[in-house]
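Anyone have tokens for Transcriptional regulator? Sequence:
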Amino acid sequence: MKISIDQQFQNFLELHHLDLNLLLEEAQIPNLLWKEEIVLTNQQFYKFQEVLSKKLTDEQLLLISDVQNFGLFMPIFFVALSSANGLQAIKRLAKYKNVIAPVEIKVSIQEKHVQVELNDISEIQNLSRFSLFNEQLIILSILRTGTGQNIIPEKVISPYPFSSSILEVFGISPELSKNDNLLSFNLQDLELPFLTRNNSMWRMIEPELNRQLEEIKTPSDFINSLHKEVQLLIPSGDCSIQNVARKLGISSRTLQRNLAQAGTTFKVELQSVQKKMALHFSKDLNLTTDEISYLLGYSEVSSFTRAFRKWTGMTLNQYRKKLI
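Reply: yep, here.
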């Protein structure tokens, strides 16, 4: 993933007392600002976001989440504001978000409501406080800037409580949930025409965003193929990197190199598949903890129960009760 860092953006950070050099150092990311572009792996990105969660005040978070302050540096926000309305803007954000960050935006329309959920693309960990609020506030800022109206969500679900300053911007108190997040809007609000609509700007930027999107699809396609083979091998109890590589028709070294280029590791992807399988099997109440542990390739039940608690923040029984 590439983040473009130019002098204007650094000046914006300095103006608001944000030292990018110190933030990168805290996240243990090599300082390559002299190149005006930093290349981060997905894990480095998440670590950087964790540092921002600890170091930034909510006032600074609000400043950096206002598209009128930094939209000039991000083409993806240009194309969102160039949309016909809020619904189209959010759909464009969902399509192109991975060009700038390993974050998935899920958009669903249910009758007269539009729901937006945010996740990291691996679905292994929750987004940090900074990352979640930043993404939600940017969406809200785009809607308000585009329409010129104070759009307020119908519902906000968050694992993090709001400070008074963040609550004032959202205009609504959140429902607290340990693992879930949600922004829900009235469809009518998202159909309001954007004052910032600009088809010429959209036609100018769209080809480049599509090109960048294609560039990052290759690693994604590889990861999808990897996940399919891992899912087939896990129940056998022999889901080693050597076996997976053989199934994919490549060497272990090539597999590791491809994973590194995608900003991930075999262990991370194995855990991602195990988590998805665990959540799927959890819905079958006839399966015991021992049986699910066996199906996921764990030699010890205790290892599975620890992993499940790490993934969900609760035991299997607690998770199942939540489903009922």
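Residues 199-233 form the longest helix (35 residues).
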